[in-house]
């Protein structure tokens, strides 16, 4: 993948299709790997590369054999490079498993794990991978004696307190004087688009559900947005670029944020939505664009609730679902609280908990690079 | 600002320059204000406007006098509108004070307040406004007996735990066997650009500083970025659009995020930076763009540390500085730990704490709108 040319001195990256890209001198110089420039364990730089001369040039490049090279720059710096380290920069997923969009055909077993089994290191790594691919995992046998969801949250990341505290209660009790009352369904939505930052990952733990309704619903916005993009590219573009105003008023706070409904990450890849039809305000555009925007958001809502995409299932006692609050929308069907108790607990953790753990675990599991390195140098 | 035309039925918004913009029917219909459509206290909708017909039209508009109108739509809905509510959509600041960029000429008194005085409601509102305008506030007389910064943080928002816990310690002690050691300076930076989400607001509380060095430094990226934009528009554009990879490796986690160094909000307004020269990786571009990008980031670093922009000051015992972690960069000058103890405590809160409180307090302070409203209707 990386090729060293000795005269004139150049280093190239070659992709799978054979296209060569020259790696600029500043790019290379900043990635020098000597212990005096780079701290081994943290991979943190010991110099400030922003201060390098902008006209820095590569003056010599020597292939040392294997994946090793010696590069010399016009500022006098010379150093040995393990070219394999450059691969990190070309990894579109930054070390994470590629997301696998799903629809309602999803095999439930593939996203369900036993909580107690995750104390095993390999099982935990595999559960992280499952969560990262699907944006959701369902854990069974989480004890219902107290706020055990906080323990689960702290295993995957750090629980993030809000005005509800460390976790919140979702419960209803049967009340004989309110027989006609049926708890309303909640259409698929993401939580708190009016917050900065938006909660990253939600955990919902069922302590007890004695009602026959109140099914949990989940839907993958990655799959739905892709269908919208195919059906209506212009509508998709509007939802991904024109910010909507979200507002929420509560005791002592008024929260307002503007953000597009379809979220693209810094690399332009769609990774989730901000979707809460009770809280958003159509942005001001001309009549034509307003209609196009509205049609796209209406179609998005239809697809989120469509049986091809939405799954509905009873979250049983002791079951906990953990999902990316922006990638995977959640909701529930209606239920009759007079049938019995229904009690769930919820909390949020930051998105970089599972990703941070996953990368570290995968790296630990790799054959030790330092050893390999020494051998290659000897051979060169 | 809002004008109702009865035939043909149209509603217009007029800006300060006299430019009229027609408000589309869907935009108006979604903002209906009857109690059966909109919950008064929370201003939350009781219907899903995404399901409206995209070809909805305004069929009648009647000016009722004052700021009141009756609008009728092709779906049969008719409702009275208080036109003043539309102003929220045209408020670029969403109810917040306009940020006031500052340089090293800033009058210190204007960002310094007494912590104990903030128990007064008006003083608290005024402190929030100061913080929101400058991105920083310094509080004096915060007691040094224990982790009182958590109390300060909970007054302005919610303390956000990280792997350091609820707060972290920054301290050094004199050690007779290490006389030569000088604690290194920290150039201006923002914290944790490799996290998702990035910490929003940082609190740093000085419990004691017996050293003569170790001055705290702060610099406003709003002022600095504006100078860069004037000097080098193309470099500014590159820093604001091309994502940089940030990486941090710690015990058990490897965190990677890609984001541009200059951050634009959803409306395209610059509101902060991600700046940490030990942790970023130059993105792969052609040679020319690489040099242009590098020149711009180097200039940005020069300006951050320039005496025209950076302030240096001793943070005294019992003083606490609270600053927007992305708008205002922080650092410290070198110090000699052998001169005495230096002990600070730090924590993070979310960015929507101060903004959410400020909007609610300002709204409370307004003449009661419901009363006003009734009077206008009577008059009409």
From TrEMBL, chains A, B:
Residues 16-82 form the Gamma-butyrobetaine hydroxylase-like N-terminal domain. One of its GO terms (biological process) is carnitine biosynthetic process. Residues 113-348 form the TauD/TfdA-like domain. It comes from Halomonas aestuarii. Keywords: Dioxygenase, Iron, Metal-binding, Oxidoreductase. It holds the Pfam family TauD. This is Gamma-butyrobetaine hydroxylase. It comes from the Bacteria. The keyword Iron applies. Belongs to the gamma-BBH/TMLD family. The keyword Iron applies. Its cofactor is Fe(2+). Gene3D superfamilies: 3.30.2020.30, Clavaminate synthase-like (3.60.130.10). One of its GO terms (molecular function) is metal ion binding.
